[in-house]
Specification:
Elements: H1 2-31, H2 34-50, H3 61-80, H4 101-115, H5 119-130, H6 135-142, H7 146-168, H8 170-176
Length: 182
Amino acid sequence: MQTIFFCRSRQFTRRLEETRGRLYRMAYAWSHNHALADDLVQETLAKALKNRHQLRDMNALDAWLFTILSNCWRGHYRREWRYEDLNATELVHELTPDRIHDEQEIVDHVRGAVANLPEGQRQVLTLVDLEEFSYNDVAQILDIPIGTVMSRLCRARRSLKTLLLDERSPSAAKHRHLKRVK
């Protein structure tokens, strides 16, 4: 029995390390702050290690970890809501090498557009489209109904498309509002 627990413990720790990068990407996508994302991931991993006995199925580890991350994010947001407007935070990427400038510019446009989405839409969009969680998993992670996941995702994708088209072509916004006269 002790050997099985020891093997499971090693497997658990290895899986945590494998998931660390994905957790960081998600925390950064939500917070747009490198230090805060790192703190959220550390808090998530500490809670996971402390409560590993609660995980019954290793196949559900990813959803369990992202649920913990979501709860840590909510806790941070509740503590800091008076001091920081997360929707007003701009994404700035200081390390843009010359040889990938054009690619980085596109990435910045997309990140900026995602950052302009409301928090709920941003969370659902990143979990479904970046991390490829199912609607059901996202509903469990964020503790919201599955219908809310679908409607937020639809609105987020529509808004993202509009934001990206408007950024790409400033004149597109003018022409979109012109009506055809017969």
